Amino acid sequence: MNAEMPEPTHVVSKGMRSPEKVMRLSRMGSSFQTRLSFMRSLTRRISKENWKFEKLRFEVDEKGYGTSVYVVHTPERTYSLITFTNEIAPEQRTDRVVAEVWDATFNLFDGIPTEADIKRLSENTPKQEAGRFRPSELVLARANKSLRLFEHVASRLSEGRQPDIELLASVGYLMRTTAVYGSGKFGCADREKISNRSETRGSFQVELLTVYLFRWFTIELVEYVARQRGGRKAVSLNPEISKFLGIGNATGLGMAPFLIKHPVLIHKWVLARETALSRVVALKSHTPESLSLFRKFMFQATQHIAEWNVEDEQQTSRIINTREDIKQLSNWFANEENIKQPLIWERILRFAEANFSLEGQELTVSLLLESHGKLVDELADDMQTSTGIELEPSMSLNQLGELLQKSFNWALEIDFDDPEKQRRFWYYSEEKLEPRFGDRYVDPGAEQEMPLAVGRDVFLLNKKIKSVTDDISVGTFVQNHPEFRNIVRRVQTVVRFPYAEIRDNIVDAEMRPIDLLRFKLAFFGASKFDPKSELWTRITLFQGAPLPDQFVGNDSDEWAFPFCPDTVAA
Amino acid sequence: MKSPEIILSLNEIMFYFTRAGVGAGLSFGLAEDFGRSSVWIAANGLDPARITSKTLKSLDEAQSSLCASQTEIDAETVLTPSGGKQLSALFAGPSVCDWILEKKSCFRQNSAFCCRKS
Q1: Which of residues 190-209 of A touch B (CB under 8 A)?
Q2: Can you tell me the distance from the alpha carbon of A288 to that of A340, in angstroms, rounded to the nearest whole number?
Q3: Which residues of A touch B66 (CB under 8 A)?
Q4: What pLDDT does residue A555 have?
Q5: What one-character-per-residue DSSP string does A189-201 give?
Q6: Which chain A residue shows the shortest CA-CA distance from B13?
Q7: Closest residue to A479, CB basis, from B6, B11, B95
Q8: Burial class (CB in 10 A: 0-12, 13-18, 19+), A283
């Protein structure tokens, strides 16, 4: 066995938070959006490259049902949002994946569609998973109205009045998506088609562009319906109010396995955020500008969190703690003595770590990044990867065992012989091929478990390695024990990427999938997490983001922590 | 991959072929390799279903085996399936790839890898 150990990638520098600290479910489930989040990088690009938006077609009846094509021209390419809106009976409106009809169904099309394309899609898009798509379609999605808010806004505007701001703030969106499919689903374009384009190479950029365009469409749609009802009496939405409308989203388990199946990508996401944080806290001195920005975003975050109300008791209690945390931060910041000293950003982080809840700490991280755009924004360009998970058969089994001891101690310390430590299992539902989370000792199907229990599989691999007396090669080992082939290559790959693994047991009886969802959605840039159970959450996307005609001035990127426009006036 | 009704994306080929491999009896790791090979076949303009259906069927019907012993005699490495069955291509393929990767730093002239029924 002459093979050398793989070269570890020494990316966790002294000033960075450790993977042991960051990659725990409890902290991941306390994540907040940052300026590196994917919605933020998208709107920065729109502004910087001066993308042009165009309403190419809007053929809808007086109730708002019909076909629309909204187009965005980037410096090199054009993308079109093709939307079909339909009347559906209230009893047919459900956010569950098993629904068969929706208020709106839509695609992001690569280029400008021909009449033939629109006709073909009109026969497929409304059917969603039962339809069939081509590589010209980059994304497939659907959405339902918030009936209460849509009707209220249409009605008020038709009477020449603005909507009730409290009602609007309590919902936050006119429509909510219930699925957004990309990356080759149902025949749509594979990720490879767009992964080398400058505007779409970043994570989830086409999916989020789709949602961004759809948000614009929903606002235009409600204004159109109001005009049809009210005629000359009708008014448009106040721009500040329309800016405060996002797109709702109901997210369930479908997102969770993605995080486990793409460890190198997750490493890149977290590495970017942690590198950004380490750059900020390493700053010895601060400028009046950065102090002023921090103060501004701290105020915005205070308002934002004051308006964040949910029914879930656990999340409510966490929000209350976070409100206390940010009050403490504000008091700390108001003390002149604290501001005079050097290394203010590092001291803020240490203060948060010593005194705040996990949510308060992660909010502080977001605020520290928010006030240092020039220092950190370029890191958003390196949050994707083409690195695959590969086997290294020439490694010796002893070396593999050493890697386990060195990098997977967190897994080896869990006693997987305890049945409660692997009570849960992940599987695909037969009806929709959607991930589900079962109880191994109650639900059928554990024999078809998805291979996502990394900790347990590492534990079993370690046991097996110890039972082999000869120092054979990994190639020979996996030939003799093919059941370990996938976990062996995962171990060999991720040891070079320290933020790749979730350092917790995701099949534990106490595991909360909602923690995984929040982590991923925060990287998307979502806010106002509203957990409906441990299995799914509602969120709002692009709330506060500029609409296509609002990208003016330098503040178009300063939409983090949106709060109700009325509060501004107050 | 084409049929009169449907064109699968590479992502769908990866998804369905991996699961077909698991369904036929492969471990998940080998099934992933099968999925990746099928994607490569499709990306090169060929139909992976037509090319791989025989070997999947053979495995599913227990005509071929996923168990083998490997012996090295001089420059020749021989993989011998157990139970008097044929060796499944879904096992032999990854095995030969692993062998090439393992030996690439110390290849001898006339090195050979073969699968042979006992």
Answers
A1: 190-192
A2: 11
A3: 482
A4: 66
A5: PPHHHHTTSTTT-
A6: A184
A7: B95
A8: middle
Query: Nearest-CA residue of chain B relative to A388?
Result: B36
What length is written for chain B?
A: 118
Chain B residues within 8 A of A400 when measuring between CB atoms: none
| DSSP letter string, A157-171 | HHTT-PPPHHHHHHH
With a threshold of 0.90, does the pTM exceed it? yes
Intervals of chain A under pLDDT 50: 1-8, 10, 567-570
3-state secondary structure of A60: strand
Tokens 């798509």 locate to: A133
Provide the β-strand partners of residue A144.
Answer: A176
Contact criterion met (CB < 8 Å) for B30 and A135: no
| Mean pLDDT value of segment B73-101 | 88
Among A467, A492, A245, A523, residue whose Cα is nearest residue A388? A492
A488 touches chain B (CB under 8 A): yes
Q: Kindly report the nearest CA distance between residue B8 and chain A, in angstroms.
A: 6
Q: Is some CB atom of chain B closer than 8 A to the CB atom of A464?
A: no
pLDDT reported for residue A554: 62
Predicted pLDDT of residue B118: 63
Helix (H) or strand (E) holding B72: strand B68-73
Alpha carbon distance A466, A405 (integer Å)? 12
A421 and A457 Cβ atoms separated by less than 8 Å: no
Which amino acid type is present at position A499?
Y
Distance CA A293, CA A297 (A): 6
Cα(A504)–Cα(A494) distance, integer angstroms: 15
Which chain B residues are within 8 Å of A471, Cβ to Cβ?
A: none
Residues from chain B contacting residue A433 (CB–CB below 8 Å): 15
A484 touches B at CB < 8 Å: yes
- The tokens describing A148, both together, are 């209460």
What span, in angstroms and rounded, lies between the C-alpha atoms of A172 and A562? Answer: 11
Q: Which long-range contacts (CB under 8 A, 24 or more apart) does A63-72 make?
A: A63/A87, A63/A225, A63/A228, A64/A221, A64/A222, A64/A224, A64/A225, A64/A228, A67/A118, A67/A122, A68/A217, A68/A221, A69/A112, A69/A113, A69/A118, A70/A213, A70/A216, A70/A217, A71/A112, A72/A209, A72/A213, A72/A548
Substitution target from B98, B107, B115 for chain A, most A beta carbons within 10 A: B98
pLDDT of residue A73: 98
Cα dihedral A467→A472→A476→A477 (10° resolution): 20
| ipTM attached to this prediction | 0.92
Quick one: pLDDT at residue A11? 67
Cα–Cα distance for residue pair A413/A545, rounded to 1 Å: 45
Interchain proximity A482–B91, CB inside 8 Å: yes
Q: Do residue A393 and residue B101 have CB atoms under 8 angstroms apart?
A: yes
pLDDT in tens, A200-215: 999 999 999 999 999 9
A132–B26 CB contact, under 8 Å: no
- Residue A401: per-residue pLDDT: 96
Class of residue A509 by CB neighbours under 10 A (exposed 0-12, middle 13-18, buried 19+): middle
Helices and strands (H, E) in chain A, number of each type: 24, 11
